[in-house]
Write a structure and sequence with these properties.
Mean pLDDT: 77
Strand order of the largest sheet: 1-2-3
Structural class: alpha+beta
Order of helices and strands: HHHEEHHHEEHEEH
Length: 193
C-alpha cells in the first residue's frame, strides 16, 4: 500500500505541474493546472481505493455504431439523432471495430483547407479526410480498444494519456461488445461515494 500511495502522490505532483491544454476549462496556465489536478485527483482516488472494478460493469451496452461504407451525411445525422458525439466504426461482415468517428472528424471536414497545415506529417491523411464523403476515409482507423475485463482504473488512464472521450470495448475476436465513455468513468467514481 505504501508503494501505491507513493506512486499516486508522485502522479498528483506531476499532473499538478503540467498544464493540460486539452481541458475544456483551459484558458490560462492556472486553469490548465487546476484541470490537470482534477484528473490526477480522480486517478489517485481510484488507485488508493484499491478497487479493481471491471469495464463490463460500467460500459454502455448495447452501443451505437456506424459502418465504413456509410456516407458522412448519414453518419452525421445518425450521431445528431442519437445525441452522441462519436461512435465506433464496425465492419458489416464480422462486426469487428475498424475505427472510430467523432465530432472532431466532422470539424475537419467543415473547416476544409483552412485547417490544413502544410508542414504536418499527417498532411496527406488530412487532405483525404477533407475530400471524403465516406466514414471509411474520415474515421480514425485502428482505434485503441479495451476488453470487458480491463479495470476501470487502467481504462481511465488510457483515456487520459491519449486524450480520448470513449473507448470501444471488444471481445477476444475484436468484435464490439460495448463502449466506455468518460461519463461511464465518472459514474464509476461516484458509485462508491
Amino acid at each position: 500500500m505504501t508503494d501505491c500511495l507513493l506512486v499516486a502522490l508522485l502522479g498528483l505532483l506531476l499532473f499538478c505541474c503540467l498544464p493540460d491544454p486539452s481541458c475544456a476549462a483551459f484558458s490560462s496556465s492556472v486553469e490548465g493546472v487546476r484541470c490537470s489536478a482534477n484528473h490526477a485527483f480522480a486517478t489517485t482516488q481510484l488507485a488508493m481505493s484499491g478497487r479493481q472494478d471491471q469495464v463490463k460493469d460500467f460500459m454502455t451496452k448495447p452501443c451505437f455504431s456506424v459502418t465504413p461504407e456509410m456516407s458522412l451525411d448519414d453518419a452525421a445525422k445518425f450521431l445528431v439523432g442519437k445525441k452522441i458525439a462519436g461512435a465506433p466504426v464496425v465492419d458489416r461482415e464480422g462486426g469487428k471495430v475498424v475505427g472510430v468517428i467523432s465530432q472532431f472528424d466532422f470539424l475537419c471536414k467543415e473547416a476544409g483547407a483552412v485547417a490544413l497545415d502544410l508542414a504536418s506529417p499527417t498532411y496527406r491523411q488530412d487532405v483525404k479526410k477533407i475530400m471524403s464523403n465516406k466514414v471509411q476515409t474520415s474515421m480514425t482507423p485502428n482505434p485503441i480498444t479495451v476488453v470487458e475485463t480491463s479495470t476501470m482504473q487502467a481504462s481511465a488512464s488510457i483515456m487520459i494519456k491519449n486524450k480520448l472521450n470513449r473507448l470501444p470495448v471488444v471481445d477476444s475476436e475484436g468484435k464490439l461488445v460495448g463502449l466506455l465513455s468518460s461519463s461511464d468513468v465518472m459514474r464509476h467514481l461516484v458509485s462508491d461515494m
